[in-house]
Structures are given as C-alpha cells and as structure tokens.
Amino acid sequence: MRLRLIIIAAFTACLTPSALQAQSDMAPAAAVEERPRLVAARFTAAWCPQCRILEPRLDDVWPEYEGADIERVRFDFTLPHRAPMRARAVEAGIEALYNQLEGRTGFLVLMDRETGEVLETITTEYDREDIGAALDRWLAATADMES
Q1: Helix (H, G, I), strand (E, B), or coil: what is residue 94?
Q2: What's the distance, CA 146 to chain centroid?
Q3: Domain membership of residue 9 as a residue range
C-alpha cells in the first residue's frame, strides 16, 4: 500500500497541463452552450495525502467564487464504486478527461469544456492565493473567448 501511495504521489507531482491534454470532443455543442465554459474537476480520495493538503485550501477559496461561471465537479475515489462518477463525467461533458485521469487523486483540473483543453492543474504547490489567481485568470480568459 505504501508503494502504491508513493507511485501515485510521484505521478501526481509530474502532472502538467500538456500531460493532461484532453481530446476536443468533450461534449455535444448544445449541452456546452447552456453550461459554464470553465470546469473545475477535483480528483480526490480520503486516503490521499496530497488531498489532505489541497482540500482545505480549495474549501477556503470556493466561497469567494459562489455564483461564478465555473462548474465544479468532484470525483472522490475513496470508495471503489466508479459508475456514478463516470456518469457524472458524462453528464458534465468531460468524459475524456475522466477516462484519462480515473483513479488519480490530489489535484484540481481547470479545463475549457468547449475545446477540451486543460488550462491549468492545481496541485499542493498552489497556496490559497495561487488558487484564487488561477481561477480569476481562467474565468477572465474563458469569458473573453465567449465574446
């Protein structure tokens, strides 16, 4: 179990937006138009040490973004039942991202639902201010793309 956690931690530390690049066929156009363009997909689990660091930071920042044009999706891999999570990914129009990262934990992916592009991956290297700056940056960028 310890080796598995070390491997997961090493992999998570190596995640970059280019490594997480999702395919552009994320959701049908009609479904995309009615939903926020910016998606914040949290990949977490109770047993994940990185999650224990990142979760409180995210929880502190989220109240500032109530009502913001962000769709938050949480994938909790604590329990082995993944069918509901896969269904949530399909419903959110981010199935390809979910398929690519299923079972990995300890990060938040900011992605453009319309293009399927991973914009930024928030990890434990981000403090509260960095998280807020990333959300502000990509909210502004995706709003500009819609104009």
Answers
A1: coil
A2: 21
A3: 2-146
**Domain containing residue 126: CATH number:** 3.40.30.10
What size, in residues, is the chain?
Answer: 147
Whether 48 and 119 have beta carbons less than 8 Å apart is answered as no
Question: Cα–Cα distance between 8 and 141 in angstroms, integer?
Answer: 31
**pLDDT tens profile 95-144:** 999 999 999 999 999 999 999 999 999 999 999 999 999 999 999 998 88
User: What is the number of domains present in the chain?
Assistant: 1
- Give the Cβ contact number of residue 93 at 10 Å: 21
DSSP tag of 23: P
- Residue 79's contacts (CB-CB under 8 Å, 6 or more residues apart) are none
